[in-house]
């Protein structure tokens, strides 16, 4: 049987399958609703199948439609990647790698990795986007990003996790705070303080580890603000809205209005890990992973 199916039919089908609404799908594709309906009908007639059940204004996928949505979503992503890679080759690039990362990975880990990698692969295009842990997981599963850098203990079974950096935490205090490294003894000295912490949505497991620090010191913190950006934490701390606890890799010497105390005598440590989708076929990913996996956890 010969199918007169073109690439556009598949894109149009997936848009309707995602929205389950012809008008909204047409708007997302920047085409007319009648034109979209005609394309879907052509696809159904060519394949000899029914893709959607239409009842008044309700649209539902048939069993065949649901199967095609799942399979095409996966395989068209690979096709798009192949076509994009071809365009990169035409432009003189050997490929592209899309990174997601939590802010602390950009302090040292990612710059060192890119410098190391580009010595032998100078024609790679890198896309870098700061994202919280959950957004990275979503991006990796959808293969919108190729590799992530997260603070997570467990991940989806389709993903691989490789620890890179295990490090202590640091207290972050306003510069004029009466406690510093010379008179610091325990976290319990701050039980009356307000704390500015990374939001639990940043990473539930990371948040629980920070809470364990407080539990070990016999008090629950007064949390005044939650955020997912270190820059926001530092701005709030320097303006005396509270103090904070962050990974050591976020320690900076560029802000004269805050100071840090390393918490080296507590058992809690936080681990930064590289994460990727085992089904990702990007050839550049495997080359980067070969460098990452040679590194022992620091």
Number of helices: 9
Q: What's the total count of β strands?
A: 12
How is the main sheet built? 5 strands, mixed
**Spatial sequence of strands, sheet with the most strands:** 4-3-5-12-6
Strand content: 15-25%
CATH H-level superfamily of the largest domain:
Periplasmic binding protein-like II
Mean pLDDT: 88
Q: Structural class given helices, strands, pairing?
A: alpha/beta
What is the CATH topology classification name of the largest domain? D-Maltodextrin-Binding Protein, domain 2
- Span between N and C termini? 58 Å
Helix proportion: 25-40%
Low-pLDDT runs: none
> Which class of the largest domain in CATH terms?
Alpha Beta
Protein described:
This protein is of the alpha/beta class and 298 residues long. The protein has three domains: 7-87, Arc Repressor Mutant, subunit A (Orthogonal Bundle); 93-165 and 272-292, D-Maltodextrin-Binding Protein, domain 2 (3-Layer(aba) Sandwich); 169-268, D-Maltodextrin-Binding Protein, domain 2 (3-Layer(aba) Sandwich), CATH 3.40.190.10. 39% of the residues lie in helices and 24% in strands. The chain is built from nine helices and twelve strands. The chain has helices at residues 7-19, 22-29, 33-47, 63-90, 109-118, 133-141, 204-216, 230-238, 283-292, and strands at residues 52-55, 58-61, 95-101, 124-130, 147-150, 159-167, 169-174, 194-198, 222-227, 243-247, 258-263, 270-277. The strands form three sheets. The protein has a five-stranded mixed β-sheet with strand order 4-3-5-12-6. Helix 1 crosses helix 4 (63-90). The chain is elongated, with a radius of gyration of 25 Å. Residues 5-62 form the HTH lysR-type domain. This is DNA-binding transcriptional LysR family regulator. Belongs to the LysR transcriptional regulatory family. One of its GO terms (molecular function) is DNA-binding transcription factor activity.
């Amino acid at each position: 049987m010969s199918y007169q199916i073109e690439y556009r039919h598949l894109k149009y089908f997936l848009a309707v399958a995602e929205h389950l609404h012809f008008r909204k799908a047409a708007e997302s594709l920047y085409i007319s609703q009648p034109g979209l309906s005609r394309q879907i009908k052509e696809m159904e007639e060519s394949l000899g199948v029914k893709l959607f059940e239409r009842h008044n204004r309700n649209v539902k996928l048939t069993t065949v439609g649901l199967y095609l949505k799942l399979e095409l979503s996966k395989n068209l992503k690979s096709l798009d990647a192949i076509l994009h890679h071809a365009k990169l080759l035409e432009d003189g690039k050997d490929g592209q790698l899309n990174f997601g990362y939590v802010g602390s990975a950009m302090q040292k880990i990612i710059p060192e990795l890119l410098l190391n990698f580009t010595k032998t692969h100078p024609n790679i295009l890198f896309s870098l986007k700061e994202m919280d842990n959950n957004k990275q997981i979503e991006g990796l599963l959808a293969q919108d990003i190729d590799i992530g850098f997260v603070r997570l203990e467990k991940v989806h079974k389709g993903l691989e996790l490789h620890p890179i950096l295990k490090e202590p935490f640091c207290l972050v205090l306003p510069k004029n705070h009466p406690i510093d490294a010379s008179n610091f003894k325990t976290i319990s000295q701050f039980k009356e303080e307000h704390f500015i912490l990374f939001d639990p949505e940043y990473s539930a497991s990371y948040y629980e580890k920070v809470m364990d620090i407080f539990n070990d010191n016999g008090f629950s913190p007064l949390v005044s603000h939650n955020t997912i950006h270190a820059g926001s934490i530092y701005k709030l701390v320097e303006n005396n809205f509270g103090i904070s606890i962050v990974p050591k890799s976020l320690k900076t010497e560029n802000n004269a209005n805050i100071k840090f105390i390393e918490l080296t005598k507590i058992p809690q440590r936080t681990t930064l890990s590289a994460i990727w989708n085992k089904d990702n076929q990007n050839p550049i990913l495997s080359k980067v992973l070969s460098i990452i996996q040679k590194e022992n956890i620091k």
